[in-house]
Design goal:
The protein has about 290 residues and is of the alpha+beta class. The protein is built from 2 helices and 20 strands. A 5-stranded antiparallel β-sheet has the order 10-11-20-12-15, with helices on one face. A 3-stranded antiparallel β-sheet has the order 3-4-5, with no helix packed on it.
C-alpha cells in the first residue's frame, strides 16, 4: 500500500516539474521577442549588409578591415587617408598609390614614376612643384620617311626649366619614296652615296635621269699620225679619271705633211700637217633623278 502511494507521489511530481519547465520556457521566449512598434509596413528592422547586386544605403558609419572597390567611387564630403576627421577636401597623412592613368578628365591624379600630377586646363600639372609640365620644345631635324609613311624627330630641349611631360610632336606623316640607291639600281646604274650620283655604263643617262654636271669616268687614249717622224707629224696621250666631276681629257697632235716626189727621185715633205685633237674614252656618265 505504501509503495503504491509513493509511485503516485513521484508521478505527480514529475508531471508538475515538466509543466513548470514548459511554462518558464514560454515566458522566456515571450520576454526576448519584441513585436513591431508601428503598423506595417512601417517599423521594419534594418536591412543587413548582403552580397547581392541590390544597391544599399547605410546611414551610420561603416568600418572594415580591408576594402576593395572594383567600380567607380563617389565621396560627397571630405576624404581622409590616414586622417580620421579630414578638414580638407583631400587630407592625406598616409601613403596613397595612384596608377599612371591615361584618363584626361579635369581633376584626375596620376603618378608618373617621378612626380604626382593633376590634369587641369588641358594638360598635366605637377602637384608637388617638382615637375611642371613642359610647354615649349626644340627638336632635331626630321628623319627619313619610313616605309610606314611616317618620320620621327627627337626633343633637344624643353621649357620651362625643370619641366616634365607635355605634348611634344615627334611623329608626322610623310610620303615614302624608295631610296635613291634602290632607284639607281632598279634603273641599271651604280650608286655613289658620297656624290649622290648614279653612274650608267653608257654615254647617256637612263630614262628619268639627267646628267649631273660633268660627273663621268674615262680611259686613257693615245693618238698619232702615220709617218710623223719624217713629215712633221706627232703623237700624244690623254690622262683619265674615275667617277669625278671632270670633263673628258684631251691632247693635240700634228698630222704628218704630204710627201712630194722630186724628179730627181727624192721624196720630200710637202709642208706640215694640221693639228688634231685626241680625246679620252668616256665609259660612264653620272646622272641625277629628274
Amino acid at each position: 500500500m505504501y509503495n503504491i502511494y509513493m509511485q503516485k507521489t513521484i508521478t505527480k511530481f514529475l508531471i508538475l516539474t515538466i509543466i513548470l519547465t514548459a511554462a518558464l520556457s514560454v515566458n522566456y521566449l515571450f520576454a526576448a521577442w519584441v513585436g513591431p512598434t508601428q503598423a506595417p509596413p512601417d517599423g521594419n528592422t534594418s536591412t543587413p549588409i548582403h552580397v547581392g547586386s541590390t544597391n544599399q544605403v547605410k546611414e551610420g558609419g561603416l568600418s572594415v578591415e580591408a576594402l576593395s572597390v572594383f567600380g567607380s567611387g563617389y565621396f560627397q564630403g571630405n576624404v581622409g587617408v590616414g586622417v580620421v576627421t579630414p578638414t580638407e577636401t583631400l587630407d592625406i597623412s598616409g601613403g596613397v598609390k595612384v596608377g599612371n592613368t591615361t584618363n584626361t578628365n579635369a581633376g584626375t591624379i596620376r603618378w608618373t614614376g617621378a612626380d604626382f600630377q593633376g590634369y587641369m586646363g588641358g594638360d598635366w600639372v605637377s602637384l608637388t612643384g617638382a615637375g611642371l609640365a613642359c610647354t615649349s620644345f626644340t627638336y632635331s631635324a626630321w628623319g627619313e620617311c619610313q616605309s610606314n609613311n611616317t618620320q620621327t624627330r627627337t626633343v633637344l630641349t624643353s621649357s620651362p626649366s625643370g619641366c616634365v611631360g607635355g605634348n611634344p610632336i615627334t611623329t608626322q606623316s610623310c610620303t615614302y619614296v624608295l631610296p635613291m640607291s634602290t632607284q639607281c639600281a632598279n634603273a641599271g646604274g651604280s650608286w655613289e652615296a658620297g656624290q649622290s650620283v648614279c653612274y650608267f655604263s653608257d654615254s647617256s643617262c637612263a630614262s628619268g635621269w639627267s646628267p649631273k654636271n660633268s660627273y663621268s669616268s674615262t680611259l686613257r687614249n693615245s693618238c698619232s699620225s702615220g709617218g710623223f717622224r719624217t713629215c712633221g707629224g706627232s703623237s700624244c696621250s690623254t690622262s683619265q679619271h674615275f667617277r669625278q666631276n671632270s670633263g673628258t681629257e684631251s691632247c693635240t697632235y700634228r698630222q704628218a705633211g704630204g710627201i712630194y716626189h722630186h724628179p730627181s727621185g727624192q721624196s720630200l715633205c710637202q709642208g706640215g700637217g694640221n693639228f688634231l685633237t685626241c680625246s679620252a674614252s668616256r665609259y660612264e656618265i653620272g646622272c641625277t633623278k629628274n
